[in-house]
């Protein structure tokens, strides 16, 4: 940015302009006018910059709020991709928790693990903790990441990916399940792993191997981590 002249202009052709001489009243007026002009001009520049900065900040905040308000990981018509966190939760007896729906979309006896859609700003372990609490009324210690299941689901068609974590139960209060959660309508059952693997494999055949209805592979991967008393 250019610097504005605020010192008096010295006129070398005049004795009054020599260094050390006293400025005339005319020179003082010229100096004051120069200072006033520079101050006003600088003020306009600063006001313009501040208004520009405020405008950019407002636009940035609006964009951030828009991103935060939209479900970032939930499938939609515009974004046909969905991300969830799943849990292979086992207790001290080595049994695995699952939802048992007596009636699920017109089908009888459907078994699924805990799965929770990631919300904006969440890390996977935060989603895991929230999902266990809302769906099972449980708290648990994460043990290991098991990988993922991913595939296309029909009506409406979208790609669903679920990241699975095996975890050990530390506290269970089923009465604290979230009644607003759709999975709250299920019966929570603790099933021996081999039995659950068999149930889910048969279920996969019934549903033409839908990726979200045969989670037997994740239970198999959890077996080395499942401990009993």
Give the uncertain stretches in residue-range form: 1-20
What's the CATH topology name of the largest domain?
Nucleoside Triphosphate Pyrophosphohydrolase
Series of secondary-structure elements, N-terminal to C-terminal: HEEEEHEEEHH
Biggest sheet features: 4 strands, mixed
Q: What is the structural class?
A: alpha+beta
Shape: elongated
The helicity comes to: 25-40%
Write down the overall mean pLDDT.
Answer: 81
Count of alpha/pi helices: 4
CATH class of the largest domain: Alpha Beta
What is the count of distinct domains? 2
Q: So, the CATH homologous superfamily of the largest domain? A: Nucleoside Triphosphate Pyrophosphohydrolase
Tell me the fraction of residues in β-strands, as a range: 25-35%
Alpha carbon gap, first and last residue: 74 Å
> What Rg is obtained from the alpha carbons, in whole angstroms?
34 Å
Task: Give the tally of β-strands.
Answer: 7
| CATH architecture descriptor name of the largest domain | Alpha-Beta Complex
Architecture overview:
- The chain is α+β, with helices and mostly antiparallel strands.
- It has 2 domains: 15-69; 81-225, Nucleoside Triphosphate Pyrophosphohydrolase, CATH 3.90.79.
- It is built from 4 helices and 7 strands.
- The strands form 2 sheets. It has a 4-stranded mixed beta sheet, sandwiched between helices. A 3-stranded antiparallel beta sheet has the order 3-2-7.
- Strand 5 and strand 6 form a beta hairpin.
- Helix 3 packs antiparallel against helix 4 (216-222).
- The termini are far apart.
- The model is unreliable at 1-20 (pLDDT under 50).
